[in-house]
Amino acid sequence: MTDAAISVRGLEHFFGEGEARKQALFDINLEIRRGSLTILMGPSGSGKTTLLTIMGCLREVYAGSIRLLDQELFASDEITRVDMRRRLGFIFQAHNLHDSLTARQNVMMGLQVHGRGDPKRHAQAADHLLGLLGLGERLDYRPANLSGGQKQRVAIARALVSNPDIIFADEPTAALDKVSGMAAVRLFKDLGRTRGTTTVMVTHDSRILDLADRIITLEDGRIIEDRAVSGA
Ligand SMILES: Nc1ncnc2c1ncn2[C@@H]1O[C@H](COP(=O)(O)OP(=O)(O)OP(=O)(O)O)[C@@H](O)[C@H]1O
Which one Pfam family would you cite for this protein (predicted)? Predict the structure, then answer.
């Protein structure tokens, strides 16, 4: 195994066809170390979400190479991508919680899609993570009775409960107050240190930049800055 969780070489991406064809990413090259926390920044339309979703196996790689956990995604088949997605955790703003399920049950869904297991242990894992995210008192609440920030924290717990190798997050802290936002990012960092979990997140949240190991800035589909953060 290499030290890179993600290795991107010469990645390009296009949307649309014919005259409407528009290039969204130009010659992206990146190596992201296992266990690190990387932030993607840049103005609206710069390509952050496109890059995140391609790296997360949610879009096809048309040109260039992406190796995720030592597996090439270019020209990969759907089975490989489905297997790979099981090793990833996704946190997006539209959190898609199930309205009829409690916070605990929603988090347990993050385990049940990965196959069978002991429901009691699933519940314990869900409760543990929800507790770490400050929702220990809300385990049996349904989404309708949770605030936007609380729902976001349930979505974070759901992404983490399966112990993913890589977490892809799009603005995970946008709906959170400062204390819960910092707690969530600290949790990503702790997982990096203790389990080697790699986190890549898109954010505009200046409160958490200091916690990153690395900040990559995109503009017009290109990386214009890539810097290590000292003292992270
Ligand atoms: N499904 C799509 N079809 C056509 N064009 C798209 C599609 N998704 C993104 N684009 C275009 O690709 C470019 C990059 O978009 P992307 O959403 O990756 O930017 P972003 O940096 O994440 O922006 P934001 O911060 O607003 O979410 C933009 O010009 C956008 O209009």
Answer: ABC_tran
CATH number for position 130: 3.40.50.300
Q: Residue 74 falls within a domain, yes or no?
A: no
Q: What is the ipTM of this complex?
A: 0.96
Q: How far is the CA of 33 from the centre of ligand 1 (A)?
A: 26
Specify burial of residue 232 (Cβ count, 10 A radius: 0-12, 13-18, 19+). Answer: middle
Asked whether 47 lines ligand 1 (CB < 6 A), one says yes
What is the pTM (predicted TM-score) of this model?
0.91
CB 198 within 8 A of CB 67: no
Residue 170 lies in a domain: yes
Q: Is residue 202 part of a domain?
A: yes
Domain count, the chain: 1
**Is 27 within the bounds of a domain?**
no
| Segments forming the whole domain that contains residue 105 | 35-58+89-228
Over residues 133-183, the pLDDT tens digits come to 999 999 999 999 999 889 999 999 999 999 999 999 999 988 888 888 888
